[in-house]
Amino acid sequence: MVTRGRWLIYVLLAAFVVFFLTPLVVVVLNSVRTTEEIGHGSVIGWPSVFAWHNYLQAWSKYCIAQRCDGIRTYMWNSFVMVVPATAISTILGAIAGYSISLWRFRGDSVIFAIVLMGVFLPEQMKLIPWALVLRDLKLSNTIAGLVLIHVVQGISFTTLFCRNYYVNVPADLIKAARVDGAGFFRTFWRIVLPLSPPILIVTVIWQFTLIWNEFLYGVTFTTGAQQPVTAALIAISATAPTDVPQYGIQSAAVLLAALPTLLVYFFGGQYFMRGLTAGALK
Amino acid sequence: MAALRITGLHKRFGSVPVLKGIDLTIDSGEFTVLLGPSGCGKSTLLNIIAGLESATEGTIEIGDRNVKAVPAKDRNIAMVFQSYALYPAMTVRKNITFGMECRGVPRKQREDAVARVAALLQIEELLDRKPAQLSGGQRQRVAMGRALVRDPLLFLFDEPLSNLDAKLRVDMRTEIKQLHQRIATTIVYVTHDQIEAMTMASRIAVMNRGEIQQFDSPDTVYNRPANLFVARFLGSPPMNAVPARLVRKGGGLVGIIGAGRPDELRLDLPQLRGRAADYLDRDVVLGLRPDCICEPGRAFGGAPGVEIAATVAINEPTGAETVVLLERAGVRLRARVPPDIRLKVGEIASFAVDTRRVCLFDPGTEQLIV
User: Fold this and answer.
1) Is the pLDDT of residue A53 over 90?
2) What stretch of H or E contains B25?
3) For B172-216, how does the pLDDT look when each residue is reduced to its tens digit (9 = 90+)?
4) If you count residue pairs, one on A and one on B, with CB atoms under 8 Å apart, how many are there?
5) What is the rounded CA–CA span in Å between residue B171 and residue B183?
6) Cα(A168)–Cα(A215) distance, rounded to whole angstroms?
7) Does position B279 have pLDDT exceeding 80, yes or no?
8) Hey, which residues 125-184 in chain A have their CB within 8 Å of chain B?
9) Which burial class, exposed, middle or buried, applies to B320 when counting CB atoms under 10 A from its CB (0-12, 13-18, 19+)?
10) Residue B140, pLDDT above cutoff 70
11) What was the pLDDT predicted at A282?
12) What three-state secondary structure class fits B336?
């Protein structure tokens, strides 16, 4: 019978769903439980009263590394980092991808291969080079330094995405533009860019999520009030080892920190799927 | 004045030769078709003329100006692409004026030019639509409008009709020809469709393997193909080409197909002169268009054809006519007869042959002898 196989698949899938969602559920529940409740009972449990003030505490009151105004400073840091880094890396990637796929030049495939290598290089490998670069540019412990890192690192991905999208743009379009007298940037701006929203959405979502969630560079190259929120979250759990662990507030902080990427996922996820599978411009 | 003069043009991609010495002079007002199978280099040649690709060697002059260092936009050309290449994000109006916009033509002048071209092509009501909202035929028209608005020295067409369905293609063919008659500009038109070439061209350049095989009027290319490639590429069905032997009889020449066989076929070729005599008592390839083998009693140019008998092997009715594959002297020949003549397969029937249009080819070089 087909149905028996079906049921097996459903059970299996349901098991996976439970498995993947349990941590999220625990964090969500804990974010509205009081410290006492968590401390006396189990880390896993249903809240007896909803402690919404955890969120307020986490946002603007809780002490992180001797500063007692919550994660809002760090959220702002992340925001100031992620917006320009995403925008600049996406624009540069679009121009590079356009050039490599549609405005061919001698050695373009070699350059693409080199750019592509950036996708595969592990972050750790680049820590020391970046430390030297930031030091020489006097950008150590600044958000601008992180923006620079994420722009440069991001170009590999954004170029790859855009290049793979633009290779499907008919070459005749570019030829027609050349006969019409449009140069490199006019062709990009007037003809290629208006075709690009699907891939730009994908690239922006990808870069935003990646940069927002990035931790290693944030924690390595910034300290104190300059840190992005991912680095600050670690500082939260490190506060006062003698105290009772503030799981409730920490959970609320984690969820607040995850909110931007969750929102991007909810509102942009469908475009992401569509953009990845879209190739046809005809 | 020569609108386009190409001399000694070579193109290599790496070590692969794509164009091997193209010489072509096109007069002003001519409709030239570059015809050839895919991969023959015709589109590459067009792209080089347009300045979209560079030549490895050779010179190109457009309107008596060497354009070697001139970018595409300054060559005074306009191009229509196979895929139309309309800018998807722009309205038809913007598509047509984009070139002028790039060249900094004032708005008033642009609007006048659009109005003129839209009226000429009857696309006024489409001007504010996007390409995606147009049918294939409408897109084709807009693509032509974009070219026409420039009023160039040279129009380049890259297989502009191959994306249209069969009926529309026939209509657009007529329209393009009409347009050419009306505006009398120089056109270079690339196609692999021999019907398009025959119907529209003032001269056809037949290309194969990066070389021009023949450059002449459609009539000459069809009836006096320069070599066996042209003979076989043009015409549907293509020219019959069979081995034969040339002998003398009285004052004239005779081509014998299947010499020595009991059913050998002897065709008197009294009109053959000149170099044909060099091939006396030698093997040649005898070429005869299917339309030169017809039903008995047909007169060709007022004179009766030469009657031959042959076995009917296959009938291929097409509606307007029937193509008959006939066998004689160990070779197969295609003939064209009216559809009301119904021949039975296997029977021996008579046919009338127009021997005036026989071509002879050298079996080694495959070049036309006479």
Assistant:
1) no
2) strand B16-27
3) 899 899 989 988 889 999 999 999 999 999 999 999 999 999 999
4) 63
5) 18
6) 35
7) yes
8) 170, 172-173, 175-182
9) exposed
10) yes
11) 42
12) strand
Cβ atoms of B66 and B24 closer than 8 Å: no
Sheet hosting strand B2-13, strand order edge to edge: B16-27, B2-13, B57-62, B65-66
Pick from A109, A179, A191 the residue to mutate for testing the B interface (most B CBs within 10 Å).
A179
Q: Which residue of A has its CA nearest to B75?
A: A179
**Residue B293 burial by Cβ neighbours in a 10 Å radius (0-12, 13-18, 19+):** buried
Q: What average pLDDT does range A136-155 have in this prediction?
A: 94
**Encoded tokens for A212:** 């927002």
What domains appear along chain A, each with residue ranges and CATH number?
72-277 (1.10.3720.10)
Whether the CB-CB separation of B216 and B203 falls below 8 Å is answered with: yes
pLDDT at A277: 61
Integer Cα distance of B351 and B80 in angstroms: 46
d(CA A145, CA A138): 9
Specify whether the CB–CB gap between B273 and B361 falls below 8 A: no
The answer to whether the Cβ–Cβ distance between B83 and A170 falls below 8 Å is yes
> Cα dist. B143→A77, B42, B82, B86, B118 in Å?
51, 20, 10, 7, 11
Distance CA B274, CA B277 (A): 6
The answer to whether B199 touches B45, Cβ cutoff 8 Å, is no
Other CB atoms within 10 Å distance of the CB of residue B115: 13
Q: What are the tens digits of pLDDT across the range B62-107? A: 999 999 899 999 999 999 999 899 999 999 999 999 999 999 999 9
Residue of A180, A185, A190 for testing the chain B interface, max B β-carbons within 10 Å: A180
pLDDT tens sequence across A72-131: 889 999 999 999 999 999 999 999 999 999 988 888 889 999 999 988 988 889 999 999
Summary mean pLDDT of chain B: 93
Binding-site residues on chain B for chain A (CB distance < 8 A): 47, 50-52, 71-74, 77-79, 81-85, 87-90, 98-99, 102-103, 146
Q: Under DSSP, is residue B81 helix (H, G, I), strand (E, B) or coil?
A: coil
Question: How sure is the predictor about A281, in pLDDT bands with cuts at 50, 70 and 90?
Answer: very low
Amino acid at site A241:
P
Block residue for tokens 């003032």: B202
Q: Give residue B311's pLDDT band: very low, low, confident or very high (50, 70, 90).
A: very high
**Closest listed residue to residue B263, CA positions, set B354, B358, B331:** B331
Specify which residues B265 forms β-bridges with.
B257
Measure the CA–CA gap between A157 and B73, rounded to whole angstroms.
34
Interval B97-114: pLDDT, tens: 999 999 999 999 999 999
Sign of the C-alpha dihedral, residues B47, B140, A188, A270? negative
**Hey, what domains does chain B have and what are their CATH numbers?**
2-233 (3.40.50.300), 240-361 (2.40.50.140)
The count of residues in chain B is 370
User: Would you say the ipTM is above 0.85?
Assistant: no
DSSP 8-class letter at B320:
S
pLDDT in the model for residue B1 = 73
For A238, phi then psi, to 5°, come to: -90, -5
| DSSP output for A160-179 | HHHHHHHTTS-HHHHHHHHH
Place of tokens 């995850």: A258
Give the per-residue pLDDT at B59.
Answer: 95
Q: For residue B343, give the DSSP letter.
A: P
Q: Which of B72, B83, B146 shows the shortest C-beta gap to A178?
A: B72
